[in-house]
Amino acid sequence: MNKFRQLLSRVKLQLRGKNHIVGWNMAADEAIAFIRSRQKTVLTFFGYSGMGYEYEKAMLNIAQMILAEHFTQTTLVNIGATSIGIGAIYPLAKSLGFETAGIVTSKTLKDPQDISDAVDYVCFMKDDQFGGNLPNSDELSPTSKAMVECSDELIAIGGNDISLKELLAGQAMGKSIQYFPAEMKHEWAIRRAKKMGLPIPGSFLGTVHEVFGK
Q1: What is the pTM of this model?
Q2: Which residue segments constitute the domains of the chain, with CATH numbers given?
Q3: Which of 53, 106, 117, 137 has a CA positioned 20 to 30 A from the CA of residue 19?
Q4: Percent helix, strand and coil across the chain, each rounded to 5?
C-alpha cells in the first residue's frame, strides 16, 4: 500500500473517532508492553476473520459463555481489531462492559472500514503479512507474536492456519488454551477452493480442529 493511501486511511479512522490508535507501525514488544500496561487479565479470541462463520450466533453464544466467567473490571478482551468473523465478539464484549483491544497488521489499513467500532485500543503492527510464521522460519510474525505473548488466556472458536500457529506457540509457552469447534462460512470456503483449483472441502471446521479438536 502506498504512503498516500495509508495516510488517507489513517485520517479516515481518526475522523471516525471510534478507536484510540496506540500506534501505526508498532513492533511486537511495543504492543505487548501497551496491552500489559492495562494491568488486566488478557482474554484473546482466535478464529475465522475474513471468511466469517457459517453459524455466527452459535459462535457468539460460546463467546458469551466465556465472557460470563470473567470480571469486566479486571479483564481486557483482545482480538484482531476487525469487525468480520471472530471480530463480531467486540460489540458483545463492549455491551457487557469489557475494555477491548485489537492487534492487527498495518496492511489492514487498505480497508479501514473493516476496523471494528467497538475496539477501544488498536495496535497497528509493522508487519509484511497478516500473521503466522515468518517465511522459512518457526518464528512468529510481529502481529502473531504480539497476539500470543500479551495474552493470558487463548480462546479459539474454529480457526485456520494463522490461528493454529498462534495457538501452538501459546501452548509451547504454557498459556491457558480452550478450543471450541466451529465451521467457517461454507460459501466462502467453496468459492476459495474453486478459485485455487482445489477440491471442494470435505470439512469446514478449519485446520485448528485438526490439531486441537482431537
Answers
A1: 0.94
A2: 3-212 (3.40.50.450)
A3: 53
A4: 45, 20, 35
